[in-house]
Design brief:
The chain has 787 residues and is of the alpha/beta class. The protein contains 26 helices and 24 strands. The longest helix is centred in the middle third of the chain and has 33 residues, at 379-411.
Length: 787
Amino acid sequence: MPLLWVSLAFLVGLILGEHIAGSAWLWAGFAVVGVGLAFFERRLRSRVGWLAAWARISPVPFALLVSALLAGMARYQASIPAWTPADLAWYNGYAALHLRGEVNRPPVLRDDSSLLHVWVNQITLTPGSPKPVKGTLLIYVRGRTGYQYGDLLDITGTPVTPPDFADFSYREVLARQGIYSYMTNPNLRLVQHGQGSPILATLDAWREQARKASLKLFPMPEAALLQGILLGIESDIPEALTQAFRDTGTAHIVVISGFNITILASLFLKTFSRFIPRLWAALVTALLLGVYTLFVGGDPPVARAALMGVLALFGEQIGRRTAGANTLAFTAAVLCGFSPGLLWDASFQLSFMATLGLVLYATPLQESLRRLIEHRLSARWAQRFANPIGEYVLTGIAAQAAILPVIAYHFQRLSLTSLLANPLILPPQPALMILGGLAVFSGAIWEPLGRGFAVLALPLALYTTRLTELLAQISGVVVFPRPSPLLGLLFYALLFGVTLFRKQIQFFLAALIQGAAAQSKRNWLRRLRQMLPSLLLGASALLALFLWRSIASLTFGRLEVTIYNLGGRASLLVRTPGGESIFVNGAPGASTLSTKLSRRLPPFNHSLAALVITSPQAPALDGLAAFIERFPPRQVFWDHTPPANSTARRLQEVINQSGAGTTLLPGGGTLSLGDGAALRLIAGSSSVGANAVAVEWKNLRLLAIYGALPDDLRDEASPGVLVLEEAVFRKTAFDAWRDLAPGRVVLVANVKSIPGAPATPGWIVAGEGMWIRFTSDGEHLWIRTSP
């Protein structure tokens, strides 16, 4: 308990430090004096009445608590930046600076952009000579960059103070990470590789290998889910799936948390205890948890979970029951001591309060449930029921209750489906983490071995993503204005009051539940036996669904063209009669596109026979680097010479790394699809990239317009299916397109209603995120649209 109160006093001191100004040295001096007074407090208790009363309440000297509080105030004041010419932030707003710095964290790679954290150590003003400087610079780069941890860069650009938005303070978020300077698309030049820590560089290289292995072994978004669970990489998770996890209150599944660390610690300890003494096994486990924390990036929630896991391990080894609240408070104080801004970070608050809820309420709730069940069943059966219910239902209730005010304050929304979603989604997560980890890490070493584990892990990953998406469709999210912090304090006062009177409340609930329980032990067992066939049937149905999904992805001698609308661009997936896959054009949002394609391709074979690129514009190329990593093509066809810009150069590097060949297929070029089917490029006359793509097989003729005009197509036969992007459609009179294609027309548009077009017979409007699929055997045509 002394550790708990001292840690809490330090955290309160951090909060007071934000509101009470004063010199850090002054508060630190008072804190030192307080420590000295604590040694004499026992002698003063007999003379000072209130000190004697305090001693009966708490074993911690009052002066020591005051000292910890003052130390927190001193630490906060010391963390307030005061810029000098030796700090990078001093130069925010200076134009065209020349900086030199080292990439000190693994780059954050998104679909169409990258974020680089650079520790700047040198600045050159114009005119002037280089001089030392210090500070972290966050750089936003359009497209996926090839830079990595430890690269020394020359940077030319204008650093600015990070921006604030109407409903989000990006500046505050970065300030908590010690970042006060931001730069967008500067000129970068690599000076030298390998300037960082060799250990961290090795761990980062292993992490990248594991990430690439996950993309080879699993479809999207299941690969992205495992990256979040195992590697701490959340940037590849599609926004729609991320929102589904938020809406169902299961977002904690896709990040590395105490749940994951507990599984790892248990697995390591049980494994090593078979070969070495348990104390040594605990030491090895603690070491591996530390390595894993560095491996996944060492973010504060992971560090907190790992530190608590290590303290719990050694608390168990010395024969003491770990005091969870003490450990949690000490861990929070240590982390906030290193980075005081963490105390105001939403992620840290959620992690802290969820863990506190588990520490205070999970075990008592589970024990109460076990005692209730024992009244109807034997102790053995009671334990069997109480363990899974307690682990997946009651722990969820405990954690959700503790974080309600934090969620309400920061996000102004609450999920009513979380109590349903967590018990359904949590049970397979330990198995998913273990099997998925074996698949990813063994696949990074030897791919065939990883595929064996991936076959076992994929059904669990599919269960997680599909069920989350299904539950997210239930209208269970309540949105409201930001509440007052006083309401949160009142809630916690009531919650902790319930904790103090726990025994009385447990007695009342036990009597209530026992009175409602009318089933005998025999009825319980009979119901369990009746449920077993249903459970087996459900498992068989899940397996059958998985198998039929694989079968449904085959074309069986038919030609299939699926048109996707992402960001207003028409992307085509062509499945040839021989079962090959060819993709035409990319689109912004590679993660969303990858999810849609993965659900159409075979789950363990998501490679492409070819990728056809018809647009030279950077926005169309930005997401292709990430797309090629997930769907490696054997051949890449350009209909024009690649443009001379950084996006195209980086894209070509990724193509070369994938081992794909590159071929120029200008307008008029034809790509054979087998069995007489062909894909043909038609050049336009207006500009580079203004063209069309024709897919032809027997009686099927589909024409997708990418900038070509009706006059460019006058020599072409009338298409059975015409695909138009909204930008192209609006450039030309409606009658011209209607005369060109009297048959079916698919209009790929960001708006759901365009005057005139939807009302025309045969016209289909594919809104944002929709897809339209045409399947033909050469004689007949079948059309399917997304809901």
